[in-house]
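Our consortium's second objective concerns turning raw sequence data into structural hypotheses that experimental partners can test. To show how far this objective has progressed, the report includes one record in full. It was chosen at random from the queue rather than selected for favorable results. The single chain below, 202 residues long, was entered without modification.
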Amino acid sequence: MGKRSRKQIDNVAPGSNAVDYSADYLSWMAELSYQTELSRCDSYERLSNCLLSCVSIISVALLTVAPVLFAKYSCNDSGATASFVLLASGYVVVMLLLGASFLLSLLSQVRLKMSVLAAPMDLYDFVAGEIKRGAPFSSPMEVAEGKAKAVQTHFESLNHKNEYMRKCLKASMILLIVAVSICLFLVCLFSLFEFLLPPFWS
């Protein structure tokens, strides 16, 4: 007999000699979906650690130069100068923003209540019980369905945690950007007025 044409193969009725890959697809997609959430969680945790380090470094740098700046633009005999008031106000606002950003980054790593997968021996007891009961998995599709059900609850819990982390980290990044923007604005402002309006500035 000659080889069957491609058209003849495509016209084969489902279930005759065709291989059903539905179970493999379901099992693969369930595993991929779960692993994606795990990877997402790891990514958010790394971002949180980076934000914590960044906020800490900026805060230490600002506190280090604060005595020098406040001494340079300190109050004179007639009271507080415009530069001193602006500098002090800017420092307070920036430090509050950095503190809020640090707190949100820290809160994003707080472990919320999460469901966990069954212990290995619990899984063994379940499968052994199904076999003794005379109702073992009868097809690859049932195996894939069991796998999907096993990870569903943990997936939902992990997804909820990731969404919580995403919102906290987004707010933390916005606050950090605003704080850095204010710092840059003050640096430019002080540099400009230092040369253009020294009588007003001192």
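The partners drew two points from this record. The mean pLDDT is 80. Residues 23-195 form one domain. Both points have been shared with the crystallography group to help prioritize constructs.
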